[in-house]
Amino acid sequence: MKDKKIAYFGGEPLGLPVLEELAANGIVPNLIVCNPDRPSGRGHVLTPPPVKIWAIERDIAVFQPESLKDKNQLAPLTETDWDVFIVVAYNHILPEWLIELPTHKTLNVHPSLLPKLRGPSPIRTAILNDERDAIGVSVMLMDSEMDHGPILAQLPMQIADENWPMSGGVLDEALAHRGGTLLADTVPKWLDGKIDPQPQNHELATYTQKMSKADGALMLDPQNLPTGENAHQMLLKIKAYDGWPSTYFIHKGKRVKITDASLDESGALKILRIIPEGKKEVRYDSFINS
Are 51 and 8 in contact (CB under 8 A)? Predict the structure, then answer.
């Protein structure tokens, strides 16, 4: 693989773990393409993306275009004879000419068992909709439509009853590493012409939506938590929105973020840890009894 020219387009949260798995299996891209540095944190400090930090530490070239629309601004991509592009959680739409540019086109790692759960939020939607049968990773050959291209490889992820529902952040990490391992196995086979792409059954496609902060609002009485199916659905939402956009309820006019929850033996919602507005994380029972 050392003689192959590979450009890797990576974003959060999956881009870095997939990249690490590739490198661990001897596939190191020649170029990392990522978002420009952005202000972050309370001090709005200009912060590089994780994949850029990874690349700099290894003396790998980095390209950070604001847009992919102007071909004249994409010299690092257009002036090299690339063997393959790899795209993982990169939040820009690649124009068709760019997808088709490398000799072996462009591959994408998608964290669902396509054609199920196409779109921007497959992991969180799988949790939210209680769809364990859709959880896994796909490596596909990209085309001009969203998550539409033929499949090169897939790997389901089995989750035991006692571990379900998983938190979104935990599942992000697990599927990213699983996707990186699958990709590392797939790339050499694809470049050697040993994989026959399989078209997706587009009639079975389902779609996910981009999530917003408002989606995390919960209507609950902190002194009388729900039971039964209501509790189950609320737990799915808490787990699905772990990290982003996170779930919260309003108590005495203040927003209270839920960071951990479960169901008790009777099936009632059990909130374990929360972050009251303007304060540090505390145990829920300490908060509600204070």
Answer: yes
Phi/psi class of residue 203: alpha, beta or left (left: φ > 0; alpha: ψ in -120 to 50)? alpha
Q: Which domains does the chain have, with CATH numbers?
A: 6-204 (3.40.50.170), 213-288 (3.10.25.10)
Record the pTM. Answer: 0.92
In Å, how far are 47, 52, 125, 186, 248 from 264, measured between CA atoms? 41, 43, 24, 43, 20
CB 156 within 8 A of CB 134: no
CB-hemisphere CA count at 13 Å for 216? Answer: 22
Contact, 122 vs 208, CB < 8 A? yes
Instruction: Sort 75 into a burial class: Cβ within 10 Å, 0-12 / 13-18 / 19+.
Output: exposed
Q: Look up residue 20 and give its amino acid.
A: E
Enter the DSSP assignment of 198.
B
3-state DSSP assignment of residue 109: strand
Residues ≥6 apart with Cβ < 8 Å to 34: 9, 10, 11, 15, 49, 51, 52, 62, 63, 64, 90
Per residue, the 3-state secondary structure of 47-96, as one string, reads ECCHHHHHHHHCCCEEECCCCCCCHHHCHHHHCCCCCEEEEECCCCCCCH
Give me the pLDDT at residue 1, please.
66
Dig out the tokens for 266 from the structure. Answer: 């009777």
If you write DSSP's letter for every residue of 272-283 in order, what string do you get? EEEEETTS--EE
Question: How do residues 2-58 score in pLDDT, each as one tens digit?
Answer: 789 999 999 998 999 999 999 999 999 999 999 998 888 777 888 999 999 999 999
Distance CA 247, CA 225 (A): 15
